[in-house]
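Supplementary Methods, section 5.1.

A reviewer requested that the exact input to the structure prediction be made available. We therefore reproduce it here, unchanged from the version used in the analyses.
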Amino acid sequence: MSRDEETIARFFNAYVQAFQTLEPRSVTSYCDVPCMFITPQRVRVMTSPTEVESLLAGMMSALKARNYSRSEIVEMGVNQMSDSNALVSVSRVRFNTNGQELERLGETYTLRKVDKEWKIVVAMVHDPGAILPPDANMR
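The structure derived from this sequence is encoded token-by-token as follows.
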């Protein structure tokens, strides 16, 4: 993994830690607007930090109702596509407060460097086995 890809991985892990607080405001700074959230059920485009916070609040409320406790990243692929664009693809397991598995999912994120900081511009939820591996041909 290149130095920049290590920075991207640290950014993403910080985002995961912030998400686990289930406080929407702690996560909105990780996103750039406009941004897009894609699930198998729908596509949501957000054009303001308030819209991002509203989407996160709904997701986090649903997780709280299921007694969500934490997530574990099982596998991560980081691909820096250019100086200002990258892909992060993960397989995640969510656990409840009793330590039982709630679900497994895959997620792929498009990141963009904004004022020297990485930000999420697209988040896509998909099957956990469909993550993108790091691309060794990019070096």
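The first strand starts at residue 31 and ends at 38. These observations are discussed further in the main text.
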